Amino acid sequence: MMLPSALQGTRIRCQAGASENMSKSFATFTQITVFVRVAELGSLSAAARELNLSPSAVSKSLSQLEDRLGVLLVKRTTRSMTLTDSGRIMLERANGILSDVESTLDATRQSQRLEGTLRVTCSIAFGSKQLTPIVGRYLGAYPDVDARVTLDDRLVNLAEENFDVAVRITVDTDSGYAARKLAPIHWVYCAAPAYLARHEAILEPSDLMRHQCLVYPEMTMNGAWTFRRETMVQHIGIASRLTSNSSLALREAALQGYGVACLPTYLVSHDILSGHLKLVVPEYRAAISHSLYAMYYRSRYARAVIRSFIDFLVADIGEVPVWDRALSS
């Protein structure tokens, strides 16, 4: 995040007291930007790399801001950095200041077409199955925007690896990023018709104790699959014939007739509709659920390309995602 040259050195009033020296009543735009990046990244060196400054310059800027405000914003130790109560208040207000500045700059470019490069990271399964066509439609709507999409199941650091948006499926958004919920992610139990024809009928979740199961570890609790029907939840211990951290691999195994799998609807809805997979105990769904989020740094949201892409994701996916609509129709 480079500082806009026209705004470097701009002085923005943050706090004033009648008895204070006037020079301590103002903070520069640069100091506020540095503070926000330090707070979001949790590291002086990481903020320095992103802002193209030296670590000593970042440290000095932060100290000058604290001196001007007369409060400690960040508690520093050799191993960690944490915001003080004043720091948390300052971060909330500072994000608003930066957003207003970026919006002002965007307003001067309204007569121009949206352009730039969008850098997105996403998990491999969702990215290949659902995100890629959504990005294609976004690029069709904004022909002067380029996209760089990296599919990786790691929870990458947006700043260190220079991403604008992470599209993630998770139960936890407490990672220091702003997060906009896009959709719930539902998981269903399914198997190939050929497998079901060769094995004992599955009428209740407990019947799966005698079947070959294809297991995604995150969808188990203490070695058990979970089943929800209205308000009732069951935990059924199962024997794993194949365990994998890749839902794509488990989908392929299910299609080949190796057993019953618990897979996300975004991945298998087409297979179910086409008859290549069949729902098992269709009146139940997995009791474990996740949500799909667009995650980003709040200070960057005012950037037109990022904001337009997140808004496009929300509109394109809709209140009920197409992969769930197809199964419920």
TrEMBL record:
GO BP terms: DNA-templated transcription
Entries under InterPro entries matching the protein: LysR-type_TF_proteobact-type, LysR_HTH_N, LysR_subst-bd, WH-like_DNA-bd_sf, WH_DNA-bd_sf
Family: Belongs to the LysR transcriptional regulatory family.
HTH lysR-type domain residues: 28-84
Keyword Disulfide bond recorded: no
Identification of the protein by name: MarR family transcriptional regulator
Molecular function via GO: DNA-binding transcription factor activity; sequence-specific DNA binding
Taxon lineage: Bacteria, Pseudomonadati, Pseudomonadota, Betaproteobacteria, Burkholderiales
SUPFAM superfamilies: Periplasmic binding protein-like II, Winged helix' DNA-binding domain
